[in-house]
Amino acid sequence: MGALAKLLSLTPTQQQAGVVAASSGNHGVAVAYGLSRLSIAGQIWVPETVSPTKLEAIQRYGIPMQQVGTDALLTELAAPRHAEATGATYISPYNDAQVIAGQGSIAVEIARQLKGLAMDSLDVVFVAVGGGGLMSGVSAYLKSVHPGVKMIGCKPENSTVMA
């Protein structure tokens, strides 16, 4: 939802200039999906060590990819430089207010599903933490409507950078 929210916020000039996103997986898939649906040109930059499953998911949308660096950080450093050099818009998976706000729409859906129940019965929400954009968006909304909810970030077993 975050990637699509950002893509929908682009001006016609930004759309024409294209998009660059860096990701080790889910964000790249989401941006690729949005680019294909909205007919916007772009590139997804992934590390050389990206999961084959994520690589295949991105490739399904026919969006060009660049494999750069052996680490997601190296990819995330190179992609914005390329975007700036080419005039494209860089879409960060976690450092973008529109991406975070879009991720918050997931929390709106959680709240809607709980509407028939007492929202006060919501004690804990577990959210996957990659770069932090999903956790930020979901937490921002849920904490605003239910300050007592406890948010717990779940990190991937094979990527403990957010620990």
Task: Itemize the secondary structure elements and their pairings.
Elements: H1 2-9, H2 12-17, E1 19-22, H3 26-38, E2 42-46, H4 52-59, E3 65-67, H5 72-86, E4 89-91, H6 97-114, E5 124-128, H7 133-145, E6 150-154
Parallel strand pairs: 1-2, 1-4, 2-3, 5-6
Task: Give a structural overview.
The chain is an alpha/beta fold. The protein has two domains: 2-91, Rossmann fold (3-Layer(aba) Sandwich), CATH 3.40.50.1100; 97-154. It is 50% helix and 15% strand. It has seven helices and six strands. The protein has helices at residues 2-9, 12-17, 26-38, 52-59, 72-86, 97-114, 133-145, and strands at 19-22, 42-46, 65-67, 89-91, 124-128, 150-154. Strands 3-2-1-4 form a four-stranded parallel β-sheet, with helices on both faces. Strands 5-6 form a two-stranded parallel ribbon. Helix 4 links the parallel strand 2 and strand 3. Helix 1 (2-9) packs parallel to helix 3, helix 1 (2-9) packs across helix 6 (97-114) and helix 3 runs parallel beside helix 4 (52-59). It starts with a helix and ends in a 9-residue tail after the last strand. The mean pLDDT is 91.
CATH architecture call of the largest domain:
3-Layer(aba) Sandwich
Shape: globular
Given this structure, which CATH class of the largest domain is correct?
A: Alpha Beta
End-to-end Cα distance = 24 Å
Instruction: Give the spatial strand order of the biggest sheet.
Output: 3-2-1-4
Average pLDDT confidence is 91
- Reading the helices and strands in chain order gives HHEHEHEHEHEHE
Give the key terms.
single chain; 163 residues; alpha/beta; Rossmann fold; 2 domains; 4-stranded parallel beta sheet
